[in-house]
Amino acid sequence: MKSLKGIKIMLVDDEPHILQFLELGLTNEGFEVKTAPDGMSAVNLAQEFEPHVVVLDVMMPGMDGFEVCRLLKKNGNNIAVIMLTAKDEVDDRVKGLTLGADDYVVKPFSFEELLARIGARIRNQFPNLFGEVTIGPFRIDDRRKEIVYQEQALGLSPTEYELLKFLVINHGIVLSKTKILDKVWGYDFGGEENIVEVYIRSLRDKLADKEHRLIRTLRGAGYRMDLP
57 with 84: CB under 8 angstroms? Predict the structure, then answer.
């Protein structure tokens, strides 16, 4: 991973030895780390600290991890939530993902696994923190608002840049027109959904994607970026 300076992580667990172990390890990796021993403390700390990633234990007395996740996501902050779940508790993982959790790690876990998952969430949700990120054949430079595809810089308008970045970062995921409009054009966009089709067509032209192998259309569902 590139420089981690400025990336903030909040750890939430009622077991002090787990907090201490993870805090030490993540601090040594270069992250800015704060900890919370319970759910209510976590919700309050998140408002002040504004973490990029929250590592959140499910089973805590009082306010459990599910409720903390729900409140963090409800507040509208772009926070990546990684939930810590008990072994084989599939229902916990499903419930967490339904409430907006971005990933989960099953206890017991290795520090290297957690670190890899944190890195994946940051690359996906906060590529601008690295300035530049490479995903498949794409290189996204958020500082220059430039995307390079197969070593060729694409001539993109600001909206085309944001749309292609959104598709690439979420590659493999079906994105509805409504979700694309919300994330790229904004929640207050009052235009027609057909604008998405116009921009998708333009991106396909610039990517020489005549057969729609990169940007797939799933009729009635939306679009999906498939990386080679």
Answer: yes
